[in-house]
Every structure is written in structure tokens, then in C-alpha cells.
Amino acid sequence: MERLLTGIVLGAGWLLLLLYGQALPFWLVACGLGLMALHEYCAMALTGATELALRPFVILAASLPLLASLFGRLPMVSAAMVLAFCCLTFLTLRAYQRLSDPFTFLNRAAFGTLYIGFGAAHLPLLFQLSSGNRWVILLTLIIVASDAGAFYTGSNFGRRKLCPAISPNKTVEGLLGGLGLAIAVAMIAGPLLLPSITLLSSAVAGLILAVVGAAGDLAESVLKRAMGVKDSGTLLPGHGGILDRADSLLLATPVLYYLLILGVL
């Protein structure tokens, strides 16, 4: 029940923001969520004494692409990503003698910047496209449908393990159920939200985004297993942390953005 209530509150708030929010409020919310996700990531990945002291600088550098997304221009975000990597490189060189494993520190900091900072930056970029808020709504519906379909199908019919070494509870049947429901929801909601989109394009979008979203979920599972934690945080009752809820969007949002700007959809 706690999980359900939290999901309803989060979903209602997100929907209201997408329906009635403007670019600046949406960017502020995206930045806030991104910073919390970065904090959770660093709490898991950077645990040494020196790394603990460097966490604020890593979070600041990793947030640069997300901050640059305010301008709604991909070159600005890309330039911020380069600047962030330069900052992390200089930070590693500056603290080299105090770090137990400088290369691992740089890898983990750079991955967090790419996965969260750069990935989350595509939410404001997507929102500011033509009918961007409707695309974000469709993306959200696809991801939610994929998660729900995978959970209920896997719980009732799951037999074959999908990736037992990464996530023992995920099954092949659950994945197929999630993909099926995501495609169905995309084919229903797509033409309603975006009259110009065809049923075929809606189905393709549902399939691609559900697959990428599932990969994003598994990517976070790899991270949590490596760090020996069950959840990224405790902020959301019944759900864990912000990163636990945003993992699928962090990969699916950039994919949808590039499918749109390249004219695939």
C-alpha cells in the first residue's frame, strides 16, 4: 500500500507539471531531481575518506550538463559535458596522492556524470521540443507500463530468469509482458497525445523505449550489486531513492530525444 500511495502522489505531481508547467519550472524540477540522484550515486560509489571529501566537487561537475540544458540547445549540453570531464580530470590529478585508486575514482565520477548528469539533461531538452511535454508524457506512460507489465507478468507467470547474476527476480516472461503492455499503451496514447504520429510509429516507440528502459533498470542493478546496496536511497517510501525511480528514464529519454531530432519518429 505504501508503494502504491507513493506512486500515485509522484505520478499525479509529474503529470500536473507536464500538463501545466513551463520550461523554467520543469528545468528547476529536473535539476532538483538530478542533484538528488547524483547525491545518491556518489553516496554509493565514492566511499573512501578522500572520496567523501571530494563528493561535493564531483556532484557540482556532474551537474554541469543538466544546468546547461536550461538553454534548450544540445551543443550547450555537449560543451558542458566536456567541461565536466575536464573538471573531473583536474580534480583527480589534484587529489592523486590522496586517492587509494585514482583511476577507479575517475571512472566512477565520469560514469555518474554521463549516466545521470548528461542523461537527465535530455529531459529539459526533450520538453522544449515542439509538443515536448506530450512526448515526455508518452515516454512516462511507456516506462510505467513496461514496469507494471513486467512486475505482474513476472510475478504470476515468470519461470525463466532473465539476468540472475544481476537481478534474480527479473524473468524473461516479465520482460515480454512489460514490452507487450508498453507497446499497447504507446499505440493507444500515442495518437491521442500526438495526432500526427502513426500507429506503427507509436508501436516502434513503445518497443524501443521499453527495451532501453529495461536496460537502464538493469544498469542501476549492476551498480547497486557492485556497491552491495539494495536501494539507492530511502527518500521515496516503498520505492527506495530517486535513482531507483529514474533509472529507466535516464537512458530512455536521450534515446527518444535523438529519435525525434534525427527524424526517425
| Number of DSSP strand runs | 2
Helix count equals 10
Strand count, sense and barrel status of the largest sheet are: 2 strands, antiparallel
Low-confidence stretches: none
Major sheet: arrangement of strands: 1-2
- Which structural class matches the secondary elements? mainly alpha
Total discrete domains: 2
- Could you say which overall geometry the principal axes of the C-alpha atoms support? globular
Beta-strand residue percentage: under 5%
Helix fraction?
A: over 70%
Q: If you had to describe this structure to a student in words, what would you say it looks like?
A:
The chain is mainly α. It has helices at 2-20, 23-45, 49-62, 64-68, 74-94, 102-127, 132-157, 172-193, 199-227, 242-261, and strands at residues 161-163, 167-171. Strand 1 (161-163) and strand 2 form a beta hairpin. The chain has two domains: 26-128, no CATH class; 131-265, no CATH class. It has ten helices and two strands.
Short description:
By secondary structure, the protein is mainly α.
Topology:
Elements: H1 2-20, H2 23-45, H3 49-62, H4 64-68, H5 74-94, H6 102-127, H7 132-157, E1 161-163, E2 167-171, H8 172-193, H9 199-227, H10 242-261
